[in-house]
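SAMPLE LOG
Freezer: B-3
Tube label: C17
Construct: single chain, 505 aa
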Amino acid sequence: MSLESEVEHVRRERDLYRALLDLGVAEKIDTFLEQALSLIVNVTGARRGYIELTDEGSGQPRWWRAHDCSGEQVQAIRSSFSRGVIAEALATGRTVATASALDDPRFRDLGSVRKNRIEALLCAPIGAAPPMGILYLQDRLQPGPFAEDHRVDAEVFARHVATLADRILIRQRHAAETDPTAEFRRHLRVDGLVGRSQAMAHVLRHVSLVAPLDVSVLITGPSGTGKTQLARVIHENGPRAAHPFVEVNCAALPETLIESELFGASPGAHSTASRRVEGKVASAEHGTLFLDEIGELPPPAQSKLLQLLHSKEYFPLGAPRPVRADIRIIAATNSDLKKAVADKAFREDLFYRLQVLPVRMPSLAERREDIPALLTSFCERARMSHQLPELRLSVGATQAALASEWPGNLRELAHAVEAAAIRAAAQGVLTIERAHLFPDLQPSANEVQPSMTFQQATRIFQGELLRRTLEETGWNVVESAHRLDLARSHIYNLIRAHGLERKPA
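STRUCTURE (predicted):
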């Protein structure tokens, strides 16, 4: 091998390993395998791919992912575990490659090969003997066989995937053992609530208490923390789960229409009621009525809501007789209702009727350890919404998000990830980098501008303070951590988050 070829080989292996390291931050093995398979398929130009890991205890397949394979094709691939290309790779512990399975005497008589007209194949065992899994690549987007470089890439990939998968599985087991939300997730339907922090465990503890009871609930917490999602979780785990969940944003309705919108109206009750109007209370019959921004409800509507809570009856506008209602009410607010009561802006008796069992949704700052999981969830949501290719967040992007302030909480984080995913996809890359997540905060932009948001200015200040401290201490991380009163590990995270590099002497 020439020096030039050897350098190219080392560069390719380095780039592939770096990409795998970025994937290694995944919290779940399924996510890791899906992203890893997408990576090697793109590197080798394969048309289809399959990856599988076995359970160490039973030796049976436990985790697998396929790329561009139908259910029938997956079954055909799996059948070759007992005979065929995969069986040979597992038995010998070596990579098996063929330019055309149709012409290869080892495989041409297999029914699946003939039926699917399989040409180029590349199959590498994952891990040392006995292998813990298999990587299978079939056919190429461009005509011709897999090149020698592709075989080398597949072997490098398989070698490192084994190590990274082991680490993720260890982390998963440790997380399961130390997950404070685990006991609540076992008996509650809470798939929509992402996070394993102590703050989320506190929320779920309250949910487990209030959900089964047919009582009113008041959800408090800053704007953008997911109060609507929490209300749905309470409904779905309660006795009315099979019935409607009706949402009303009290701040979004004109004061002149909010009573008819909530309680309905008889014909002629007001200028726009030419026919009978069914209100949201009636729509939620037997189910749950969720009143978001309850603090914005005007006094007349507050009085009617109090009557509904007290007597289970209400009067539609213009109706001569009351109507019975069988509903549960969940309300939410980001304002201080106690202060509103003191200021006579909110009825005290209604406040205590609503706050039978209050639940507070924490800010993102109170559950910062949930940010990596939230990033992954929001990235997948953006990918599905906009039909984007498989995307993942780099270590730098994740660290930048962890180091940032998010005054808009989950809503702001979700919008930032969605925009970052669209930017990355538009550039034709599969990794969301720090620049995609924070496009206005490049490392060179170290001056606070008048048009910047508080968050942008804070990030610039953090980065500049850290850079200056590191330079003053000769990049002594221990001394810098002491000066800034931060943990050494956090200093390393901030260095990556702000993309700081030590200048050569």
